[in-house]
Structure formats: C-alpha cells, structure tokens
Amino acid sequence: MSLGLMLVLEGMMPFLFPSTWRETLHKLAQFQDGQLRFLGLTLMLSGLLLIYWVK
Known about the structure:
Largest sheet: none
Order of helices and strands: HHH
Shape: flat
Distance between the termini: 16 Å
Strand content: under 5%
Number of helices: 3
C-alpha cells in the first residue's frame, strides 16, 4: 500500500508539470556524487521522521 502511494506521489510531478520536471532532472544530473548522496540521505531521514511522526 505504501509503495502504491509513493508511486502516485512520484507520478504527480511529471503528469502535472512535465517541462519543469524535465528541467529539474537535468539539473540533478549535473550534481556531484556527494551532493546526490547528501540529498538521498536527507530524503531518507525526512521519510523516517514522517513515518515516526504519523505513528
């Protein structure tokens, strides 16, 4: 169920704003590995905090 919700949320941006989403992905592709890892870590910790807060 949570995977389905994640896919719905992930699909909203390319559906609603395809050109903005494409530009954002292009900018993300320019990041260094360390920057992407920091972004990934930040997103994971934010998700864990949200799950903890909801419980």
